[in-house]
């Protein structure tokens, strides 16, 4: 009688018999992408040198803040260069992670490696064209785009954060930021490096109690919350806790069979629901006032981002006064 382990082993052997993706195919994609990147940086008037691409291509993960700081030191006062380097740096990170995740899921679904590779390349090309078309359409047809009072809620929270980062790390620059305005945060790099040693000792001392504690995941997870408020992530936290902790402990067989399929279903459902809600309600100007639409404005971080814990000083702004900038 065939057991579950025999069935899994047989399925893995069937997938492994499929032809793998040749390494030269990945090399071709890398070279092609790098050439297009060089052409974009050279042709677009961003005052960015091609050498900047070598900076971001040298990292494999966690490139966001590092790319911003390094590009800010290399090109001080240039917000466009910082934005381009951040885009390429994040693209290397997110694309590599998505590539591996897709192949892992394809292995579970018994999809041949070459088939998933072809779909990834085709999907990337289509996605680039669709994204450019949608962005151009939005900028030409959506009134008051990215404004805090935009009626269809196109407030561009991530884009506004991206713009703020270009001002902070590009126009102002890390040299002025760390040397004059805020000298203490630069020591956080040293603190983060030194914290690795006591944390390693604690995990060696208490392996069972701390086996699921990963400081990188904790810090990275906290950083993903900005610039959104709690309403964007609280529901996902409840769902993750239920499936990744409760159900995984009590119903492991069901979890192994349906958890990731359910994840894909929920993700697809959100995408389809967003399209239906937008074209049927928001685009037509319908205004539905109920708890689910209004609760996000109740906290200090709601209300179009105009709340503050502290009152505005009498001079009307925070920070150094004009003429006293570093």
Account of the protein in words:
It is found in: Membrane. InterPro entries: Oligpept_transpt (IPR004648), OPT (IPR004813). It holds the Pfam family OPT. Its main location: membrane. The chain is mostly helical and 326 residues long. The chain has 2 domains: 169 residues, no CATH class; 76 residues, no CATH class. It is built from 13 helices and no strands. The longest helix has 31 residues. It is globular and about 65 Å long. Helix 4 runs parallel beside helix 7, helix 7 crosses helix 8 and helix 11 packs antiparallel against helix 12.
List the helices and strands and how they pair.
Layout: H1 4-16, H2 23-43, H3 51-56, H4 64-74, H5 79-108, H6 113-141, H7 157-172, H8 174-181, H9 188-205, H10 215-223, H11 234-250, H12 252-282, H13 291-294
Helix pairs in contact: 4-5, 4-7, 5-6, 5-7, 7-8, 11-12
Question: Can you describe this structure in just a few lines?
Answer:
The chain is an all-alpha fold and 326 residues long.
Query: Helical residue percent?
Result: 55-70%
Which class of secondary structure composition applies to the elements?
mainly alpha
> What's the story with the biggest beta sheet?
none
In round numbers, the mean pLDDT is 76
The tally of strands reads 0
Spell the H/E element sequence: HHHHHHHHHHHHH
What form results from the Cα inertia axes?
globular
Q: C-alpha Rg, in Å?
A: 24 Å
Strand content: under 5%
Low-confidence stretches: 55-61
Number of folding domains?
2
GO molecular function: oligopeptide transmembrane transporter activity
Subcellular location: Membrane
Pfam family, one: OPT
Membrane topology: Multi-pass membrane protein
């Amino acid at each position: 009688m065939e057991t579950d382990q025999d069935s899994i082993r047989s399925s893995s052997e069937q997938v492994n018999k499929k032809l793998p993706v040749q390494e030269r195919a990945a090399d071709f994609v890398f070279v092609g992408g790098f050439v297009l990147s060089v052409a974009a940086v050279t042709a677009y008037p961003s005052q960015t040198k091609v050498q900047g691409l070598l900076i971001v291509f040298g990292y494999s993960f966690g490139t966001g803040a590092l790319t911003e700081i390094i590009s800010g030191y290399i090109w001080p006062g240039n917000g466009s260069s910082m934005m381009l380097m951040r885009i390429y740096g994040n693209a290397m990170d997110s694309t590599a992670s998505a590539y591996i995740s897709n192949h892992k899921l394809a292995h579970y679904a018994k999809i041949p490696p070459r088939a998933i590779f072809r779909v990834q390349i085709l999907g990337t090309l289509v996605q680039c064209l669709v994204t450019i078309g949608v962005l151009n359409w939005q900028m030409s047809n959506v009134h008051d785009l990215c404004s805090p009072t935009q009626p269809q809620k196109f407030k561009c929270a991530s884009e506004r954060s991206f713009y703020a980062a270009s001002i902070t790390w590009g126009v102002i620059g890390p040299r002025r930021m760390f040397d004059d305005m805020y000298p203490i945060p630069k020591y956080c790099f040293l603190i983060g490096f030194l914290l690795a040693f006591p944390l390693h000792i604690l995990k060696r001392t208490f392996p069972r109690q701390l086996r699921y504690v990963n400081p990188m995941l904790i810090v990275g997870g906290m950083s993903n919350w900005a610039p959104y408020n709690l309403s964007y992530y609280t529901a996902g936290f409840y769902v993750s806790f239920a499936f990744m902790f409760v159900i995984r402990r009590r119903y492991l067989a069901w979890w192994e069979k349906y958890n990731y399929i359910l994840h894909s279903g929920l993700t697809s459902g959100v995408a389809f629901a967003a399209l239906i809600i937008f074209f049927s309600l928001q685009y037509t100007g319908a205004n539905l006032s109920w708890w689910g639409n209004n609760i996000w404005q109740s906290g200090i971080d709601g209300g179009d981002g105009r709340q503050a814990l502290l009152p505005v000083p009498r001079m009307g702004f925070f920070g150094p006064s004009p003429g006293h900038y570093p």
